[in-house]
Amino acid sequence: MNDYAAHQSAPAPWHARLLGRDRTIVPVVRLSGTIEAGQKPGRINIQQAAPLLKRAFDIKRAPAVAIVINSPGGSPVQSHLVAKYIRELAAEKEKEVLIFVEDVAASGGYFIATAGDQIIADPSSIVGSIGVIFAGFGLEGAIEKLGVTRRLHTAGKNKSTLDPFLPEKKADVERLKKLQLDIHEVFIDYVKSRRGDKLADDQDLFTGEFWTAKTGIEVGLVDQLGDLSSYLKERYGPKVKLEKIEPKRSFFAMPRLPFAQLGVSDQGLADDLISSVEAKSLWSRYGL
Fold first, then answer.
1. How far apart are CA 53 and CA 138, in angstroms?
2. Looking at CB atoms within 10 Å, which of 104, 156, 232, 244 has the fewest?
3. For residues 72 and 67, what is the distance between their CA atoms, to the nearest angstrom?
4. Residues 6-42: pLDDT tens digits?
5. What is the rounded distance in angstroms from the CA atom of residue 142 to the CA atom of residue 49?
């Protein structure tokens, strides 16, 4: 007998129905955005995710926790920390973790997704991209044309590694590649430890390639095609209650005015702009 049939054949007592205890509760945590440190909207990191995950796993009546992931990736460290924390809570609270992929769970986004016991995705979702990427700019020609002289003083011969205003050095690139290979190895090992025998013997699986979930299910990156509402209703019955776990808003929190209206310079404006460009670049890689 499946979960739905068992739910239908064993009606709860009247007092349980009156109190709403005849329904299965499944907390839902939504992790959406690029993966990077910082307390700003549109980001996923351990600082912002941990309180939400803790509240979700603390709901004693819930047999499982649903996590909706929608991310093109980002920081490998933050990806690892979030995934590790999910597994720690799952073990402590003895709850199943159900991951639901929306538009994309790629790179670090897929790293977090593999923390789930089951990965359910829309057929058109993008999954995979198990690799490491570094992107930068070479601006040495630009400052020369502008007639700008760069003055750079360091203590340590490698302190200016990959400086965008200096010509690229072969030794710097080789050092960067070594770092990338180390991080890539951590990524591969974690995916293998979580997905195990589900993974197909595909030569492209760890090359940074990505697929739709429709193909991802064939190579073992996804367990089932579907969506949050339909899957949980099928599994726990039509009366399943989805308990959204959202960030708490302070009563005293004030909306942030644009820096021009404040009459002062915003020191973080340049950083925000660069971060926005990088985030857009990550999303656009998957057509989003």
1. 41
2. 156
3. 16
4. 444 445 444 444 445 668 999 999 999 999 988 888 8
5. 40
3-state secondary structure of 133: coil
Pairing mode of beta strands 126-128, 118-121: unpaired
Q: What is the pTM of this model?
A: 0.75
Gap between the Cα atoms of 156 and 142, Å rounded:
26
At 241 the three-state DSSP class reads strand
Please report which helix (H) or strand (E) contains residue 136, including its range. none
Beta carbons of 270 and 52 less than 8 angstroms apart? no
User: Please, is 139 exposed, middle or buried when counting C-beta atoms within 10 Å of its C-beta (0-12, 13-18, 19+)?
Assistant: middle
pLDDT of residue 139: 60
The residue type at 264: V
pLDDT digits (tens, 9 = 90+) for 209-251: 999 999 999 999 999 999 999 999 999 999 999 999 998 875 5
Closest CA to 150 of 160, 163, 165, 132: 165
Contact between 102 and 206 (Cβ < 8 Å): no
Q: What is the pLDDT of residues 127-171, one digit of tens each?
A: 998 877 656 566 666 666 676 666 666 666 665 565 666 666 777
- The residue count for the chain: 288
Unique residue bearing structure tokens 């670090």: 108
Tokens in use for 7? 């739910």
**What is the phi-psi region of residue 16: left when phi exceeds 0, alpha when psi lies from -120 to 50, beta otherwise?**
alpha
Give the residues across from 71 on adjacent strands. Answer: 105
